[in-house]
Structure formats: C-alpha cells, structure tokens
Fold:
Amino acid sequence: MAVLRCPTCGSESPATSQRFECACGGLFDVEHALRPLETKLFDARRLRAHPPLDSGVWRFRELVYHRFPRQAIVSLHEGNTPLYASPEVGDWAGVDDLHLKHEGLNPTGSFKDRGMTVAVSRARASNAGWVACASTGNTASSMAAYAAAAGLNAMVVVPEAATAVGKLSQAIAYGARAVQIRGDFDAAMGIVRDLARRGEVYLLNSLNPFRIEGQKSIVLELIQQLGWKPPDWIVFPAGNLGNCAAFGKALREARARELIRSTPRLAAVQAAGANPFASAFRDGFRELRPVRARTIASAIRVGAPVSYARAVQAILDTDGVVTDVEDDEILEAKAVVDAAGIGAEPASCAAVAGVRRLVSEGHVQPWDRVVCVLTGHLLKDPETTLAYHRGDLGEVPHANPPVVVDADGEAVRELLRDD
Ligand code: F0G
Structure:
C-alpha cells in the first residue's frame, strides 16, 4: 500500500492524510513498494481494458496508485495521447528523429488532466469539501472539470491580467468559482497554500503528491509507445516544476521495477523572463533565486517554483540539463509546430525552441532521438496566435494573416492566384 514519505527527513504519513508538507518543510512524495513489473501487463491493457484501466493514467495503476479502489476513480478518459514523428519540426530544431508527445489532446486540452484524475479521486475519497488551486490557467480548467465530474466544490485563483482566454472560459464553464486576483501566479500560490495549511481547502496544485503520481504516466506512456526503448532526451517546458519532478520519479521507479534498462536525459526549458530554475542550474544548483516572471508564454509565467527541490533531484538523477529561450524563439517554434498541422500553445513550444538551443550548444546531437512534450492545446491561447499572425507583435517569420475582402466571388478567386 502507498504511503507518503518526506524525502528530506524520511518521516511518513498515511496516504489518506490531507497534508502535503512535512513538519521539516519538505514536500511529501507517494512511495510504493518497488517490486519488478512486466511490460506485458501494460501492453495488454493498452490493447484491451475496461474503464477506468483504459485511461492512459490508470493503465499504469501499479505505478500510480496501487490498490486504490477502482470504483472510487474519477476519470475522464485522460491520456492515450499521440506521439507524432515530425520531420518538419525536427528540421527546424536540428534533429533527425524528433517526436512530439501531444498532451494538449487530453480531455481539457492539457497534461494537467493526468495528475488531476489521481488527486481528485483522492480528494473525493477523503470527503474534501472545497478543492482549490492557484493557476496560470491549465490547472484551473483541469481541476474545474474533474471537480465537476466528482461533485466537489471548486475554487480556482488565477492572475487577472495573465490568464489565457481559453483557460478562463473553461474554468467558468465547468462550474468552478473563479477568482481573478490583481497579482501574479506566485501571489495566487501563496494564498491557496495558506488556505490549505488552515485546512479550509484540499489543495490540488502539484504540491499535492498525487498530482505528481498521475503526471508520471506521460513518461511511462511515451516510452511504451516507443516499444519500451527510452529516447535519448525528453524535453519539456518548465514553470512550477511539477512535471520535472514527476518525470524524474517516473524514470527512477521504472528503472527500479525493471521496465527500462537505460535512463533518458531530461531537459527542462524555461522562458528567459521566468527562468529561476535555469539560472540555478547554471549556478550549480547552489540556490533558487525567485524572479518577477515575464513572458508571453503565460502558462509558465512562474517566478518561485514550488517543486524546486524534487526537480533538482530529477535533473541530477538523469544527467539532465536546464535551459531558457527568448519569447521570439518560443513564438517561432510555435509557428513551425502549428504549420506542421500539430499545433500547441506558446509554453508547449518552448520545449521545441529548447531543442534547437540545445543542439546549437552541443548538448543534444543531431542524431539523438528526442521526444518533446507539448503540454497544451493550440486553442488555449487564441489571442497570442492571432496577435502573432496579424503582426501585432512586430515583424515575425511565418506570419499568415487573414485577408479581408468584399463578399465577392471574384475577389476570393483572385486570392487563389496569389501565393
Ligand atoms: N506547459 C503548460 C501548458 C502549463 O500550463 C504549465 C504549467 C507548464 C507547461 C509547466 O509545468 O508547472 O509542471 O513546470 N501550468 C501551471 C498552471 C502553472 O497553473 O496551469 P510545471
């Protein structure tokens, strides 16, 4: 049976506890018995399984939340997202063998659904009254949907000025009480953390160890899609560092359980204006210096990441790297991903811009097999996409502005001759 254990001081708490922080200040992790497992168990479920084990998260239930009662699971059929091979995007990034794991194709359009199915199931089983989260938008929309499915009251706290329109509208539509603060994500995080410490809400940010358990399935699923042969690199955008922590834990446990024989290197990519993790990496992880975050990729506009310590462990364990990219690199990468017919929100494309950067710096070799995790759907942030293509962000490569003409067939036909 799973227990919560503090990686800093080793003290334990039952899995049913609503505490996410240890008395020593460390964050609890879910700990499982690490008996070997066979890949064929998961391959059989991928071909044929009954709900909820047909979900891309619960297929890995022994690794995610062993022995949690099936009937208590709140699932919206998350996971099972495509892994696209993309030579076009690979060409731009400078690698021959690039794959894009599209987490934007989850039920609410982001990877957050994978952590939310586990943590909301736990919240409902614990009879939580209110569930809450701080968010740049995706956590909010995912939590709102799963809380609605579970019949729980939900409050989301988001920055007023910086939440993409797709995300805010989802949270409202799914019925959450949406609070827009005149402040940034880090301020929102402080507010909900305090409410959770007082026991007034059940916290569903990635401080919650069950969120991390669900997010591990991104890495497990992509490795399964590659026939259990890990790629050389897994590259992903990094904000609050929940994913980085989850990926490191997934790989550690998959090795211990003999599901994989080699460990891919993790590469976390931040926006240059929101880069405390990248700065700390360059400084040998001596300390985390929070920043006032600024970037057009609003999903990763995070200045004081809460999962810093466990993300550092993930990078060290996998011989990983952390880098950062400018907003114009993110937007160009997005234009390339979008034009390949795949499409993703700006933050997701920081990962693709990160590959190009890491190739130019000699970390990633052109012949390496690279998987980029696209974390959110193109439609999450339509305002940024329109601003880019209409030229509102200045002169940009790959602009494809819409054309306005009179309602006249000849005027439209004329445009077919134009290329
Ligand atoms: N990509 C997207 C699209 C995100 O929404 C987030 C985080 C990340 C990447 C970074 O992941 O925090 O695990 O390092 N969004 C959070 C939110 C902050 O509130 O939706 P991380």
The chain has 15 helices and 13 strands. The mean pLDDT is 96.
